Amino acid sequence: MNIASVRRPIVPPTPPRAPDDMSFFARLAVIRQNMIATWGQRAYEEDIVQGRFVLRRSFILNRPDAIRHVLLSNYENYARTPAGIRMLRPVLGDGLLIAEGHSWTFQRRTLAPAFTPRATANLVPHMTAVLDETIAKLDAQTGAPVDLREIMQRMTLEIAGRTMFSFGMDKHGPTLRNFVMEYGERLARPYFLDMVLPVTWPTPMDRARARFRKRWTEFVAMLIAERRAVGKKDGAPPSDLFDLMDEARDPETGKGFSDEQLIDEVATMILAGHETTATALFWALYLLALDPETQEEVAVETRGEHLDSIADIDRQKFTRAVIEETMRLYPSAFLIARAAREKDNAAGVEISKGDIIIIAPWLLHRHEKLWEQPNAFIPKRFMSKEAPDRFAYLPFGAGPRVCIGAPFAQAESVLALARLIGAFRVELADTTPVIPYGVITTQPDHSPMFRITRR
What we know:
Blueprint (H helix, E strand, L loop, with lengths): L23 H10 L8 H4 L2 E6 L2 E6 L2 H10 L4 E3 L1 H11 L8 H11 L5 H23 L8 H18 L7 H15 L4 H5 L7 H27 L10 H7 L11 H32 L1 H11 L7 H5 L2 H13 L6 E5 L3 E3 L2 E3 L4 E4 L1 H4 L41 H18 E5 L7 E4 L1 E4 L5 E5 L1
Parallel strand pairs: 2-7
Antiparallel strand pairs: 1-2, 3-4, 4-7, 5-6, 8-11, 9-10
């Protein structure tokens, strides 16, 4: 897209780039605090950046054809790294996000009907009900400083609870948020042994993660038991995601999920669904507060719209472009790391068994060869007929393992942003720059205060 004629766009703040000659131990120290800050200028300019991680070679891939090979053409040759498994398994178990081989194939086939566009459309009333309540609560806070990050977290958690179980999260929401915060602050940061030891060799932090997992799975099992106690009317169609998942059967084998598997799938959908969407909405609101003109364009587009169906959501072209540009600048999954099972050639890159492959949406989305003004906030780049290469833009991954909940997340994000900006003018009450940091997802370094006024 030629964006030379677009008015001067805002460029939101980012962490300083690391020196390209940063030592291994210095880089290791930064990784635990902010993975994004470990990359130097080369990673934003070069197609392939080769390095070493402990005793293994590593490759940062910024070439779409090489990424296509790893994520699509020969994806079975690339497994999650030990550190990746250690970070995710305690909260997601062996759910769809980290399953491999036949287990992943079974889960993907079985869950697919629950995430079709038609199934998503049936869940929109749950979303709109929560948005109505959120807007009503925000009405009472106009003019006063508000923490929109916390409000987005509570809102998306409530949407996750209602779309999953058809009941609100007033009772259990604080406990779930405490689990998320506890894990993120204490257990989700990689230590040296987490990155170098095989998964079968427990590290000291693995023991703490195991204790966390026991408490977490007991909590999710309790939610499932409460939902099952409510039941559903005989012959009635599924009313929520739990009905769809509980009744789901593999179309080839007729097999459904065991109770243990269902716990992991529910945990995956609740956590992956509410936390990533809340973060995307926070960043979108932050960007629109920095860019009032773009915010007004969103408000104009929503004017007169009911916004209570998939058809209404699909008409919000500019709002969708704002969400897409937000996810370009702040991809929730900022890093995809894989280990090669066997030697391979990825579009000319010779890869040996055990090599670490880094595909970083944070880098890819800001790469100077792939995007014009890569660090600027320009939503209209996503309204151009010149779409970015499919493997240069990965907010939900790509290939067979693309996020199964992407249509749901996109509908929720567009609906929420349109309704919120249609109702309120959003401004920053805090002038401190918000710096993104990468620990599991792309988070802000602090929660700024906003001021909202009714339109």
